[in-house]
Specification:
Length: 434
């Protein structure tokens, strides 16, 4: 902890503090009291909904003349003997196929990076990534503070952390070799986390689980035989065609949320050198759209809480919407002022309002019900999981995107299938080998 503080000199968060067992229980009463010897209080940051961070980056990119294509899949690549390269893409919603010409192509596809490289070169068998699976259990909120623990069975670090209205238990770290889009939690993963968490927090059992989910880490390959948790978490940038001084193909591997801006800057600098463009990268000073114009956050909240209250929103809705949109809340207010009924709740179980649907379609690239429910709003992670209001959302989006009745029905059904597959509520699903 001393080293942790020293390595983050100048941070805005307090330094660590040693606690006795009594002090620890006062701060976090959910902990098991017997065998508790004490602990350390330290501070870190949390991004509750990182999908919104992706949206903000995409919006910032469009301001800098980028073109965003969602639901697009790379199906072919022709580098030829001279620039530009040709990338073939398929729109998975319409099945339309089209091509892009580019002097340089950046492969930043996370855990799909090796699959993307294989699309570019069918002959390659080189694995650049070691992909590992991590799962989370979502239970009713039981702790006020994030609790960091070490498992008794393998000494791995894991956590029980407040997340939205829930507590999140995670995560595992096991090798995973299938397509990342097919990852799911199995019974072995779930039992491991339940058993280890119950060592510190009493009363945990499978019937407490509301739903589970899994993800894939794109770790950069290192020495074979190393434990999954021992593999480096550092990112790596590979110039696949270093001899091509004017373009070629670059892969960005192993990037995390905490390092993505630095990785972006390093990649941009490499691109600039290859394309002989020497403008200084400005990512270290460029605020994302929702963070602009906020000099004093408390003052900002006070001003816009009053404005949101005047259009009929309650205190919980105000806090939720300011947390999602930041200074972009002015766009939402403008939509509501033009059509008052858009301040209506989408669903009684959620604070979200109908104006968010309009904003997501017109300004945030949403093209499906799943886009809105899972990646623009937090409705999927609410008590109803969006199943009560999916048709309402589909009909609202349908009016904006000119969907017919068949498309609306398909959108609702597709959303329900995606919820069941990505966030299963069955506490102990069949294992992958069953």
């Amino acid at each position: 902890m001393i080293l942790y503080d020293l390595l983050s000199i100048g941070k805005s968060l307090p330094s660590h503090q040693m606690l006795t067992s009594d002090q620890l229980i006062q701060i976090e009463p959910s902990l098991r009291k017997d065998r508790l010897q004490g602990g350390v209080l330290f501070y870190d940051c949390q991004a509750s909904f990182v999908e919104r961070l992706s949206i903000e980056n995409a919006l910032s990119a469009t301001e800098n003349r980028a073109k965003i294509f969602t639901h697009a899949r790379v199906i072919g690549f022709d580098s030829g003997k001279s620039n530009p390269s040709i990338v073939q893409v398929e729109d998975v919603l319409s099945d339309e196929k089209f091509s892009f010409r580019a002097r340089c192509v950046v492969n930043a596809t996370g855990p799909w990076a090796d699959l993307t490289l294989h699309t570019f070169d069918k002959e390659t068998s080189v694995k650049r990534l070691r992909t590992t699976k991590g799962i989370h259990l979502v239970i009713q909120r039981l702790n006020d503070n994030a609790v960091i623990l070490y498992s008794k069975s393998d000494n791995r670090l894991f956590f029980v952390i407040p997340w939205l209205d829930y507590s999140l238990i995670g995560t595992t770290d096991t090798d995973y070799v299938d397509n990342p889009s097919r990852v799911f939690p199995d019974s072995k993963d779930i039992e491991y986390l339940l058993k280890e968490a119950a060592e510190a927090i009493p009363g945990l059992s499978s019937d407490k689980i509301l739903f589970t989910y899994a993800g894939v880490r794109p770790l950069v390959c290192s020495s074979p035989g190393r434990k999954e948790s021992a593999v480096s978490r550092n990112y790596r940038i590979i110039d696949h065609e270093s001899k091509n001084k004017n373009g070629g193909l670059i892969s960005v591997l192993g990037v995390k949320i905490t390092s993505y801006r630095q990785a972006s800057e390093d990649t941009t600098d490499l691109l600039s050198r290859k394309l002989k463009r020497f403008t200084k990268c400005s990512t270290d000073s460029e605020k994302l759209p929702g963070g602009r114009g906020i000099a004093d956050f408390d003052e900002f909240v006070g001003i816009y809480s009053e404005k949101l209250g005047k259009v009929g929103l309650d205190e919980k809705q105000v806090s939720y919407l300011l947390g999602i949109y930041g200074s972009r809340i002015v766009e939402l207010i403008d939509i509501i002022q033009k059509e008052k009924t858009l301040s209506n709740r989408i669903c009684p179980n959620n604070p979200d309002v109908e104006a968010q649907i309009v904003l997501s379609v017109k300004s945030e690239f949403a093209l499906s019900v799943s886009d809105f429910m899972m990646r623009r709003a937090l409705i999927t992670f609410s008590a109803c999981r969006g199943l009560d209001c999916s048709e309402t959302v589909a009909r609202s989006m349908g009016r904006l995107l000119n969907w017919n009745e068949e498309t609306i029905r398909n959108q609702v059904e597709s959303y329900k299938m995606e919820v069941d597959s990505r966030f299963p509520s069955n506490p102990v699903p069949k294992s992958a080998s069953d």
